[in-house]
Amino acid sequence: MRRTRSTKTAGVTGALLLLGGCVDSAPLAGGDTTVLDRSSNAFDNPASNLNDEEFERHLEAELAFEATFVSRPSDVNPGLGPLYLNTSCAACHPGNGRGLPVVGHGPLESHLTVRIERDVPGPQGSPGGPGAPLRDHALPGWEAEATIDLTWVEEAGSYPDGTSWSLREPRVHVVFADGGELADDAMRTLRIPSPIVGLGLLEAISDETLQGLADPDDKDGDGISGRLNIVFDETLQRNVIGRVGWKAQEPSLFQNSASGFAATMGISNPVFPDEDGGVDIDEETVELAAFYMQTLAVPARADWDDPTVQRGEELFDEIGCSSCHVAELQTGDHEVEALRDQVIQPYTDLLLHDMGPRLADNAPDFGATGTEWRTRPLWGIGLTETVLGAAAYLHDGRARTREEAILWHGGEAAGAQSGFQGLPAEDRAALLRFLGSL
Amino acid sequence: MSDFTLPPHLLLNGETMSDFTLPSHLRPAIVACALLIVGCGGSGSNGPAFEDSELAPAIVAAFADDVIIPTYEALAERLALLETSVQTLQADPTEANLEAAQQAWVSAREPWEASEGFLFGPVDGLGFDPALDSWPVDRTALDQVLASGDELTQAYVSSLDDTLQGFHTAEYLLFGTGNDNTAADLTGRELEYLAGVVAEMTDLGTELAAAWTDGVGGAAPYGDFIRTAGATDNTVYPSMQAAAQEIVYGSIGILDEVANGKIADPFGEQDVTLVESQFSWNSLEDFTDNIHSVRNAWLGINLQTGESSTSFADFVGDVDPDLAARVTSEIDAAIASLGAIPEPFRDSITDPAAADQITAAQDAIRVVQASYEAELQPFVTR
Q: Which of A29, A141, A210, B205 has CA 20 to 30 A from A438's CA?
């Protein structure tokens, strides 16, 4: 696995300062954190505006994020399991990008998580909602919680102009260690790992900004009612605005880091200790993994000045995509100096939206309903295949292309989706080119 | 090395471990001012962009066809030879057969390390890298597996974690922890397990090469994405520049990792547990092959035949012959400097008499890295 280089990648802020009045350059997707990299390395750069102290800490943080854990006892990285899904943070986020909807054992990593309702929700779980992910790996001498099989159901359709498409939908079959099976009507939710670039900037969006974007009762009458998720912060021991995850079900990258160690690797920590109170790693390790996510650079856009790409962005606006995929936001305060007061282009409003029955997982998570999902940031989405060598989109990886992802949009996004379907083929291609430029 | 060791101070039960300090790195400030001037009448200070070069299509195609694919094909072939040699060892565990299997491991290791300058595409996204090259070995779990009554088939091995498979698990079983294994040390269970490990490695190597030449799992051959870089329907490399960034950034990444990770971490910590390929004492060969991956990508060299093709060095040479010649000589100097470090590296890191050679090798590699970052990178970041 590659590691982040210990020197800084070409940033863009110095360039812009020198360009003075003739700025006609790539939009600074990640503000001053932005780097110029459209290679497979694009999600693996430290933010270009880190100060020396932050930069050194980022390099140390990478070791925590990439560390592969093994059984106790071991001279190196003990603490794995006994039940787990994977052996390092990085294994589920290859190249810091998306994972694939892959389940089971074998040489290729397990990337799809399956969460079911549990008596005790556990890390990443919520009361009355889906609990911690099923752990289908176990150390020798232990038995995995379940085996999971994944199959796909294809459904054909066509655009109004006759162009055909085919969408696929996942079906999982879960057999527990005791031989019992997960009932067809039992709660379950499937999630692929997300790209981790830009998460610190999103964490730095102020509560006030988010509250300003929210429109829970659709007072502006545009048919779109963005809502905030309110979730429990284990550190603060109170409810706060949810910010991280497919349903904004986690309050912070710190808690996301802690729950990730505990839920997916079986590595107990001060936020989620063992039943007897023991821990495998200390708080500093949890903080470092969070810091790594916070301080990755966002890559600059490509081909932003191409007329087709620009036409695509106009269409993105016209058919209503940008109602939720809000192009520009400004960060507020954050403990990491490099993230403060940045104007960024994440293409998200960070709010929950009803996405209709076809995408529904019927698994409420804190305040998010079974049909709601948080608007995904689109920055870097054009690099998905470049980073991973393959692609999967939406919460369970059902969409093989960005075009399929659009076609799955429903609920509050149904109008935008049908607007896309109604575009001439050339315009659909332009809109997709725009997404590829991000 | 595929994975990394957590700094010792983060390990709660690392009782004997000293405080971890990050190695000092060269951190050249990268002046990006020439990189972004678009539509302002400037073409930058370093001549034409790669994107506009007539050589660009041939360079990126040769990168796939003459550098990357032959390296993976060599890996697949040598892993198959490793598998055969382990089968021979299992059938007849003599000292000679053990030595032959150890040599086959070293031989297979070469193309793997010589691929680490272009660790992108299927090897990364589809998990071949962790499956083949995870570190550390989960020795506690391995002991339990060997003590169990389970049948140790390839299918069984492949169902286990990456930390119980791949190069380093095979290395541990073949060489022992002190490169002092004898044939008599190997139990039947260990040989059975080792046979499963190398059989799985052969399949992975074959599949990795096929991912580039034929495509796996219904995907297009990955080489096609490089060859057709710049085509509007190419969703991986929509520009020649993006493909060329793989050459430059991949090389910068491995140069940095060797100087500032693979060497600096164990040398700075004086900690043998941080040394790559510590069981086989193959560390310096690993590092040297890593730098060869940079050289092969730069000069378009086919690892199998030694022949060179149209390369990024040709593009740079057309623009600035002195720069191209200097980069080649800097790479060669880095390789030579690694050759001056006394073997085995795991002992040299704590030998005061070897410290100067180790530092000199780090410096030589950092010189190459600095040239890539300051002088080559601008060609591919317009």
A: A210
This prediction has a pTM of 0.90
Kindly tell me the sign of the dihedral angle through the C-alpha atoms of B146, B151, B154, B155. negative
Domain CATH code at residue B77: 1.20.1420.20
Tell me the per-residue pLDDT of B274-329, one tens digit each, with 9 for 90 and over.
899 999 999 999 999 999 999 999 999 999 999 999 999 999 999 999 999 999 99
A154 touches chain B (CB under 8 A): no
Burial A165-199 (b: 16+ CB within 10 A, else e): eebeebebebeeeeeeebeeeebbbbbbbbbbbbb
| Token pair recorded at residue A163 | 């162009």
Domain finish residue from B226, B254, B282: B226
Q: Which domain-ending residue is among B226, B259, B290?
A: B226
Is B304 found in the same domain as B240? yes
Residue B347 in domain: yes
Same domain, B259 and B372: yes
The distance of Cα A211 from the centroid of its chain, to the nearest Å, equals 21
What does the pLDDT read at residue A104?
Answer: 75
**CA of A19, closest CA in chain B: separation in Å?**
8
Residues of A in contact with B252 (CB under 8 A): 5, 7
Q: pLDDT tens, B229-240?
A: 999 889 999 999
- B309 and B178 co-located in one domain: no
CA distance A356 to A354: 6
**Structural domain boundaries, residue B161:** 67-226
Structure confidence by residue, pLDDT tens digits, A107-138: 556 689 999 999 999 999 999 899 999 999 99
> Do B78 and B105 touch, CB atoms closer than 8 A?
no
Phi, then psi, of B120 in degrees rounded to 5: -135, 170
pLDDT digits 0-9 by tens, A69-103: 999 998 889 999 999 999 999 989 989 999 889 88
B1 assigned to some structural domain: no
CB distance from A147 to chain B under 8 Å? no
On whether any CB of chain B is under 8 Å from the CB of A59, the answer is yes
| Token output for A211 | 């509250």
Is-contact A29 A301, C-beta < 8 A?
yes
The pLDDT mean for chain A works out to 92
